[in-house]
Amino acid sequence: MRGNYWSTRGSLSWVCKLIRFKKTLIVEQNREYVIHIREMLSGITDNIFFCLDGKEAVQLYDDHKPDLILVEAILPKLDGFAILEHIEKSGLTHVKIMLTSINQDIIIKKAFELGADYLFVKPYDRETFAKRICDVRDYKLYGGRRPPLSQAEDLRTQITNTLKEFGIPAKIKGYSYLREALLIACDNFSVLSSINKNIYKVLAARFDTTDKCVERNIRHAIETSANRGDIEAYYRYFGFSVDSNKGKPTNGEFIAAIADKILLQKG
């Protein structure tokens, strides 16, 4: 048999109690991500096939006709877009998920044009990954509009777009720390009154690192944004609250200003 295979029968998850996927195909060139995705999907699918390149993915798809396909945009031999085109030609109904580490409009637009039902940008959120796939499955089964984002997912998207506006690249560690810090701050704004004692410690535990490492990497992300981000964004968010001697917001000022604006927009 081509590719690699796992059976997950016996696993059960509350997110998909009624209808499980029979066969799932994961196409991802990073084996560690494959294992991570497998763990997140173990409760909603019976069988998982995976491969690391696009050419083998097409063969696996033709051999097994999976009802759930997760395919990375950038792959060796044949990219994810070509795979989506191949799947569309079959005329069969599947749940098709695009995976990418590149959060760019052109990638997102192309994926949906080629029939993708949803798109995940790395790093993946373990708490919502399987749930979102089940939401898409239910939408395809029962019709109607594409399932709306949950409140938590909508908040995460808003934070991601804001960090993008500030020019903070997703590949640096400080980006992930900042995004998580903003999620925490929006959920409990009072933690900002003692940011060094609370948020840094929580983030350090979540990312298996130290308080100092979190603080340093968030600082690096803010410094990076000051050099490559939208200057107008700084004026809109900080105005004259920024320390005139430093010319840049402190970690606490940066997180507090963005969280405050997001909460005001949410009403």
Average pLDDT value? 78
Shape: elongated
What separation lies between the terminal Cα atoms? 55 Å
CATH class label of the largest domain = Alpha Beta
| Overall radius of gyration | 21 Å
CATH superfamily of the largest domain: Response regulator
Unreliable stretches: 8-18, 144-149, 240-244
Short recap of the structure:
With about 270 residues, the chain is α/β, with parallel strands linked by helices.
Can you characterise this structure?
The protein has 267 residues and is an alpha/beta fold. The protein has two domains: 122 residues, Response regulator (Rossmann fold, 3-Layer(aba) Sandwich), CATH 3.40.50; 117 residues, Arc Repressor Mutant, subunit A, CATH 1.10.10.10. 51% of the residues lie in helices and 12% in strands. Strands 1-3-2-4-5-6 form a six-stranded mixed beta sheet, sandwiched between helices. Helix 6 packs across helix 7 and helix 7 crosses helix 11. About 8% of the residues have low confidence.
List the helices and strands and how they pair.
Layout lengths: L3 E4 L13 E7 L3 H11 L3 E7 L2 H11 L3 E5 L7 H11 L4 E6 L4 H9 L4 E4 L7 H14 L8 H15 L7 H15 L11 H8 L4 H18 L2 H8 L12 H16 L1
